[in-house]
C-alpha cells in the first residue's frame, strides 16, 4: 500500500511539475519557420554559387563573403538577444530570460566560428596567408574568446541566481566587442580587411574591397544571404531555448523527487 502511495505521489509531482507547455500556434509557427529556413537555404546557396556574378579581381573566392559576412550578421543578432535576455533578467529576476541569454550565446558562438573559418579561407588566396596581425582579425578572435569565456564563467558558478546575474552583466558588456569588430574597418586606416557593405571612412582603398552596388546580383545575393543567416539564428535560438526549458524542468522535477525521498 505504501508503494502504491509513493508511486501515486511521484505521478502527482510529475503532473504538477509539467509546466513546459506551449500554445499550439507557437509550435506551429516554429515548425513553419524551420521548414522555410531549411528550404530557403538552397535558394541562398544557389544565388551565392551561381546567380551572383564573379568578382573581376577576387574571382570565385569572393563568393565566400556571402557566408562570411552573413554569418557574422547572424551571430551579432544572437549576441544582441543575449543582451536583451541579460537585461531582462536583471530587471525581473525571471530565470526564463537567463535561459534565453545562454541559448543565444550557444547559437551565436558557432555562427561566429563559421565567420572566422570562412574569413581565413578567403584570406589564403587573396592575402596569401591564412592569418595576419590585422586589427580586424585579432579583434574578431578576441570577441570569440570573450563569448567562449561566457560559457566557461557559467560553468564555474554553482549558485543559479549568482550565475545568472554574473552572466547577465558579462553578456551585456561583451557586446561591445561585437560593435568594435564592426567598426574597425570603417574607422581605422591600418587594416587590410575590406568593407563589404558601405564605404570606409578612413581607408576607402582597403585591399580586397568590393562594393555590392556595382552589380545588382551581388547586392541581391548579399541581402538574401544576410536575411537567411539572421533568420536561421532566430530559429536555432528558439529550438535551443526549448531544450533549455526542458532541461530546467527536468532539474526541478529531480529536485522535487529527491526532496520527497528525503
TrEMBL record:
Domain Cytochrome c assembly protein stretches: 35-188
Presence of the UniProt keyword Transmembrane helix in the record: yes
GO biological process: cytochrome complex assembly
Location of the protein in the cell: Membrane
Entry keyword set: Cytochrome c-type biogenesis, Membrane, Transmembrane, Transmembrane helix
InterPro entries, sorted: Cyt_c_assembly (IPR002541), Cyt_c_biogenesis_CcmC (IPR003557), Cyt_c_biogenesis_CcsA/CcmC (IPR045062)
Protein name: Heme exporter protein C
Native source species: Candidatus Thermofonsia Clade 1 bacterium
Amino acid at each position: 500500500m505504501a508503494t502504491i502511495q509513493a508511486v501515486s505521489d511521484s505521478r502527482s509531482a510529475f503532473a504538477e511539475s509539467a509546466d513546459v507547455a506551449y500554445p499550439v500556434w507557437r509550435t506551429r509557427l516554429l515548425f513553419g519557420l524551420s521548414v522555410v529556413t531549411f528550404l530557403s537555404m538552397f535558394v541562398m546557396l544557389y544565388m551565392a554559387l551561381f546567380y551572383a556574378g564573379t568578382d573581376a579581381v577576387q574571382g570565385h573566392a569572393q563568393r565566400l563573403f556571402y557566408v562570411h559576412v552573413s554569418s557574422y550578421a547572424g551571430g551579432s543578432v544572437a549576441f544582441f538577444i543575449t543582451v536583451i535576455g541579460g537585461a531582462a533578467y536583471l530587471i525581473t529576476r525571471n530565470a526564463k530570460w537567463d535561459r534565453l541569454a545562454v541559448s543565444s550565446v550557444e547559437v551565436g558562438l558557432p555562427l561566429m566560428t563559421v565567420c572566422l573559418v570562412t574569413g581565413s579561407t578567403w584570406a589564403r588566396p587573396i592575402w596569401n596567408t591564412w592569418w595576419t596581425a590585422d586589427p580586424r582579425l585579432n579583434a574578431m578572435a578576441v570577441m570569440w574568446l570573450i563569448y567562449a569565456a561566457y560559457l566557461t564563467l557559467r560553468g564555474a558558478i554553482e549558485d543559479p541566481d549568482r550565475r545568472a546575474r554574473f552572466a547577465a552583466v558579462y553578456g551585456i558588456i561583451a557586446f561591445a566587442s561585437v560593435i568594435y569588430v564592426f567598426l574597425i574597418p570603417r574607422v581605422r586606416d591600418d587594416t587590410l580587411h575590406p568593407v563589404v557593405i558601405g564605404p570606409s571612412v578612413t581607408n576607402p582603398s582597403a585591399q580586397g574591397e568590393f562594393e555590392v552596388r556595382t552589380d545588382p546580383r551581388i547586392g541581391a545575393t548579399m541581402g538574401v544571404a544576410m536575411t537567411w543567416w539572421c533568420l536561421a539564428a532566430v530559429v536555432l535560438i528558439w529550438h535551443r531555448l526549448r531544450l533549455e526549458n526542458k532541461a530546467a524542468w527536468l532539474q526541478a522535477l529531480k529536485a522535487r523527487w529527491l526532496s520527497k525521498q528525503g
